[in-house]
Amino acid sequence: MENKKLAEDSFPTKLTFRQKAFMNKLLDVYREMKEPLHYSIVAERLGLSSSTAYDMLRLLEKKGIVTSQYATPKTNTGPGRSNILFSPAAKGVELLTILAGESQQQEEWAAVKARIIAGLEQGKASGYKDVFDELFARIPDADTSLVRCAEIITVLLLNLKQTRFEFEKQSSVGSLLSSPASKLRMSILAGLILGLSIADIEAQGLLDEYAKIKEKYEVSLQELSKENLLKLHKFTREAWNSLKRSPA
């Protein structure tokens, strides 16, 4: 979250997919040659026309992601026309590092989400015991706040399912999930689910354990960016719909 804010503060103008791809390739060539690059070299290595490479380099320079300098060709023995050479700016390298990290996190989230939803679908026949046990055990080892929230909210929903709660849109939980995403609503949601299944939790002797889990959820929820909050809300609705489709 802090890295994303740094990127937004330092680079108010976002890069397009094409600009990111160009910049990544430029970095590769620069690291290989270890010196500022003439646009003709960039064009050759990236398979572009010289004019396209030059225009893109100038555009990225305006964004503060590339720097340029003039240098006399080394082959010249006397006064001559200077060449313009380009290098990735420090901020450009920093931005791509941040974006690469965010891309990896998105891929990891997609994998986690797919794993949990698949587990819910497969667990219908066995009453969800295996998927519940796996998620319950994974909570302390969650890599990110988003993953921790997703695993905890799924555990809470699975426990609620065991109480024979009716997973309908008109229910209290369904109404909350139908409302726009907010940290307050997602906090109330977890508390409501916990409250509705409290008798079952007490019967299992896990009240203290669930109190700790709920606390972890609240801390992780507050750490979520707006984007990740929306991801959590969407995921919770998918988990809810999966459980809704299964027999009581």
Automatic annotation (TrEMBL):
Task: Give the originating organism.
Answer: Dehalococcoides mccartyi
Q: For the HTH iclR-type domain, which residue ranges apply?
A: 26-67
Which Gene Ontology terms describe the biological processes this protein takes part in? regulation of DNA-templated transcription
InterPro entries per the UniProt record, alphabetical: Tscrpt_reg_IclR_N, WH-like_DNA-bd_sf, WH_DNA-bd_sf
- In Swiss-Prot or TrEMBL terms, this protein is called Helix-turn-helix domain-containing protein
Which Gene Ontology MF annotations are present? Answer: DNA binding
